[in-house]
Amino acid sequence: MTVAEAVKVLDGQFFSGENKAELEIASACGADLMSDVMAFVKDRVLLLTGLVNPQVIRTAELLDIHAIIFVRGKSPSRDMIEMAEESDIILGATKLPMFLACGKLYEAGLKAGGTRKI
Questions:
Q1: Strand partners, 30
Q2: What InterPro entries does UniProt report for this protein, alphabetically (predicted)?
Q3: pTM
């Protein structure tokens, strides 16, 4: 699935990187705690989060995440959009809550972002 397809499934919109939206993603990770993202993330992952602050962009940079979708109708600040553009990170948003957004992406064929071994 591409980022563009994911945004369409979620009836979302882009804030940056729409010109790179044909990027292939293999899985999705939904989390509001960036420590959880660091524990679960895989390659070619789409991050869904309701956390809207610069730490999200920094975490994405650190983990080589190239696409973030904000849930629950949240919007990134202009500073966050600029940070994302400088780092080639695609930003989008959906009005859907995290649970429904993850469910719709799963139904459309995306798999979980990873699992933690206990």
A1: 48
A2: Ser_kin/Pase_Hpr-like_N_sf
A3: 0.92
